Protein: 5-formyltetrahydrofolate cyclo-ligase
Amino acid sequence: MNNNRAQIRKSIREIRNNLSKNQQNLAAQSLYMNFIQHLKSKKTNKTEHIAIYLSNDGELDTSLLIKELWNLNHHIYLPITHPFNGTNLLFQRYEKNSPMRANRYGIFEPKLNCSQICPLPALDYLLMPLVAFDKQGNRLGMGGGFYDRTLARLHEQNWQKPQLIGLAHECQKVDVLPIESWDVPLKTIITPDKTYCW
Structure:
């Protein structure tokens, strides 16, 4: 099964990385419109606390969405690797002037500032990257398990927040994923083409 998961990762990452710059730009525009529409459907006018990520390795570009969420006065948070165990994630406030650093994977994240960390239950939305997803809402990540470990305690409880939303290109959808016990399924996945809800 692990070999199957590795093969799916390799195959989907190749497809994703072969998308043209124009395809990526159009996808980024559609993503921001779809997520803003999703927010509007909740009929709330309050400032939301939204964790998102900076795109890497052909992932759906989040930069346009982040700028629009800033314009709408929402609070944005980015994942940073935990300074002590290095296998879990914390979510830190991200603003236009936030000091940034590259983590061990070469992905930029805010420099640690404990006063800017948001506890998971205080987030309204957690927008997550993924390599592949299936028709049941199962998510396959890069294999590091950062999100699964971070969300494990919440997954064991009947939590209300944050709402977990996967972001992906439509080409990342497969019929069925091989699932492990630690995988955290998603109730919502947004692609440039549509919003899937389970």
